[in-house]
Amino acid sequence: MLRWDENNQKSNSNEPHTIDLTASQRHLHQIPYPTSTSTSTTTTTTTTTTTTPPQLPPFTMKLRLACLQRRLCGSVTSSFLYLLALIALLTQLQPFLSSLLVVPKDPHHNLRDKLLFPRGVARPDDLDGAKVKDGEGRSHGDEVLWFNAPNCSVMDFMGGPDPTAKMVYDSSLICGPKAADRDVVCSLFFAQIGLKDDGDCIRKTDDHKVPKIVYFVIFGDYTFRFWHYVSIMAAKRHVSPTALYVIGDAHPMGYWWKRVMRDCKGIRFLYRSRPTEIGGQPVKFKHHLSDLVRLQALLLNGGIYLDADMVVTRPLDPLLDHDITMGLIENGTGMGNAFIAAKRNSPFVREWYDRYNTYNNTQFYTNSLHVPRDMWHKNPGRLHVESDRLYRPNWFEADKLFKRWDYDWSQNYAVHVWTNGNPVPKAEEEIQTANTTIAQVFRNALYGDPRPRHQSMLGNSVNGKEVI
């Protein structure tokens, strides 16, 4: 006969193991009436035996028995009871499951990082992120040193006139033991696009010279024009910059920006949200946003700021030894800020920037042109001035640019293109053979030769019309 021993192991036995299951027990176990029939030739006795099934878990047995007692053993009720059992089981397993699902509180564990920083690509906050001992440039907590200055107070300093400065500039990149050796705007750019600086942002110039880093700052939706393209190409040709940045809150657009991207490899667009106010005052003139942010770039990094209609005409190396170089447009107008070459953390730039704490939002020229002029008048030795070689012909002499050809600009470091109300060339075809000073300047910027060019050497303009 077959029977189940105490360990639920099937074994043979000569002794019949008959179990008399009641109807309720049979229903409880959901088993048929299994029989084992043996017939002997010498007797007519038939012995019927049953096999004991494996025992169900006690908890399930109780549920099923309760179900039977209440005659609620329909399929729906049974499913409900099993669901309750499952919930009870999961409740008991909850601590174990939770331990498996806990994610470390690491800011890197998010979808954005997985997209921006695939395996093998370091995160931006790993940049210069090694722990630094006291005395090596960084002190306890958030108090850090900036270029051997007492404390990294530059963030608070910039945040005076512009509260957004603390939000848009990463202090870990600006303030740190390696920042003095870095183009920090480059570090900000790499962090913004989610890449690590693997030596690309090492400064090529020490702080004894103005670095050959060029900036253009433009806020608002902006369609590049032909003269903007010329300005950038002139900087590339004559400055030979180690880096060239366009800073703004909207990516430049249009045909000529595409030409810049094609012809000026390595140019970088750095997104920078607009300052919401200046010196606690609302900003009424959009130009003042650029006036402020250009000083921030020079303060943090040093370099050469150019307006997008400032065309460099020859190498600027003689100017790079000065702390700061600007040019007077004319005394009544003020000190021009379309060209600023300054060392990092220039004292003149610091004082000028600090004066934006008393920003006058009703006057267009006060903070941008009059303040630096008055500072220069007070102490002329603080500023190297190149008025004629930066702003001549001035805006009162525009005819010498657009209607004449005989102005001697050979000693100029740059020429300002006075675009308002003047016939500025709009395409390459217009400058090929034109006999004007502005055509000479543009040809020098694009081709390195101011002389007229033959028509067969035309560029990619379309029918002599402006392409945008």
UniProtKB/TrEMBL annotation:
The chain crosses the membrane at residues 72-90. Residues 35-52 have a biased composition (Low complexity). SUPFAM superfamilies: Nucleotide-diphospho-sugar transferases. Keywords: Membrane, Transmembrane, Transmembrane helix. Residues 24-55 are annotated as: Disordered. This is Uncharacterized protein. It comes from Littorina saxatilis.
